[in-house]
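hi! just following up on the protien thing from before. the input was this:
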Amino acid sequence: MQHPHKTALVIGANGGIGHAAAHALATQGWRIRAFARIIPESTTQNTGAITWITGDALKDSDVLNAAKGVDVIVHAVNPPGYRNWGKLVLPMIDNTIAAAIANGARIVLPGTVYNYGPDVFPEIDEESPQHPISRKGAIRVELEQRLERACARGARALIVRAGDFFGPGAKNNWFAQGLVKPGKPVSSIIYPGKRHTGHQWAYLPDVAATVTRLLARENDLPGFARFHMNGHWDATGMDMINAIRTACGKKHIPVHSFPWLLIKPLKPFVPFLREVDEMKYLWREPVRLKNDRLVAFLGTEPHTPLCDAVHQTLASIGCLPKISPVPTPDTSSIRQ
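and the predicted 3d structure came back as:
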């Protein structure tokens, strides 16, 4: 379904989910304002339906100016490097909420499983109680509560919750910062989970396609809408490992356990390690989001086969050898 008169502001368009959402919406006819602190070097100019805007999500005036006249605001921003995450995330969502209310726009938020504690494991639906056991989870709960309250003041909200993200170009996630090393051939796999324990993954282009399809049904969505994705459910942990091996063409890449104990002394100095240490409980037992509501609403969930998704991801972050193009034969001296 085309949306020739709809405009979306994507805050955090440099990030994995922001980039994927911007391009998925653009392919469906949306006009995109891609908002980021730094415009990527590969984007030298505005192209087609995507217009880049330099701005700071912590400055309310920047967000308000960028959001004038938009129908949707995709809130896909995180503090760079997870620095001061706890102090910056809520002011960022407040600025997005103010801009959405001013324009009567819908906010789209990529949700996480951090909101939940073990009391609702192993299967979680949209109505499961949110009793987080981490600081980060408590902030995510507050963030979503602010969105729900904003819906009584003129905003609308759509939360699409999924498992651990991975996908082309995205490097700030477990896949690229834990399992493999971007820019290097895969010589080993570091797996954070317990053996034979299920884990849920979400391929970013599938998440973006889900958001796009839901927004195409705007007239059928409630003011405050929440949907869970199934994504890729890996019941034993071996599906992801074997998909990486297949993509690399190596059946016997060794797998090592994630060094949880070794990262403890580094936590004060490496913000990312401090954040992931809080989330280790999500790797110790199966945690699965149920997508019944999404399937009932859309009919199906967008789903890329795992091997294809992993191959695209590894190629994009420089873990697979680049294939040289086949040279074009020189036919200038060939007589006809």
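The first strand starts at residue 7 and ends at 11.
Residues 85-103 form the longest helix (19 residues).
cheers
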